[in-house]
Amino acid sequence: MNQSWSFVIFGYNESKTLPKVLNDIIEFCLKKNIIDRELIIVDDGSTDDTRKIAESFIFGNKDVIYLKHETNLGIGPALIKGYLNASKENVIAVPADAQFDIFELADSINFPEKSYLSFYRLQRKSYTSFRNLISDINGFINRKFLYLNVRDVNWVKAYKSVDLKSLDLKIKSSLVCSEICAKLNLKGFSAKEIVSVYHERTAGISKGASFKTLYSAVKDIVGLINVIREYKNKIQAS
């Protein structure tokens, strides 16, 4: 039997693309015979029809769970909420903007312990120059200070739920992705990297480079470096 999966779908005002993402995941599970599954929708304070769409999928479907932030908190808190509520063996968080294709997971639905899946984008053609700069700076920090060399730390990842819940996460911004990968690497986990196509948006507006998101990440950089340094010392002392 295939391993069980929690699919976290997170977003803010992505009602136009959310149905496609949900339907694609349901189709994927049917084709790959993933029987033990759950779809966790994390609504990060949306003001559009996200709740209505989520409730339409929940109706008659016990595998769909809806969680909502009353206000928009950002990518980090949305990811953490989804991860902490995941109850299946594996968990993957995908954006509700339909820029990730869940079928890229097809060859890795059963992955071993002491490892995680790291999808990486070959192109970032729809990024602004500013957002590319921020991504490059983040990559430098990951390599230089966090002992982390995965190619695309800010793109989709899949983990064992029990591993995530053992990490005592400290960072609340989008840099939580770096914290997770850095801590797992320090514990001797291996990353299976999988090439991913970054699909163009068909609706909605990108929030990944919003001032609020970037400010939260920049503010957390020093804290993240200290968190990982302390974690490394703890691992070495144990």
Biggest β-sheet description? 7 strands, mixed
Pick out the low-confidence regions: none
* Domain tally: 1
- Alpha-carbon distance between the two ends: 36 Å
Morphology:
globular
Number of strands: 7
Mean of the pLDDT scores? 89
Q: So, the CATH homologous superfamily?
A: Spore Coat Polysaccharide Biosynthesis Protein SpsA, Chain A
Order of helices and strands: EHEHEHEEHEHHEH
* Tally of contiguous helical segments: 7
Radius of gyration based on Cα positions: 17 Å
Percent in helix: 25-40%
Structural class: alpha/beta
Fraction of residues in β-strands: 15-25%
CATH topology description: Spore Coat Polysaccharide Biosynthesis Protein SpsA, Chain A
The largest beta-sheet arranges its strands as: 3-2-1-4-6-5-7
CATH class: Alpha Beta
From the coordinates shown, what is the CATH architecture? Alpha-Beta Complex
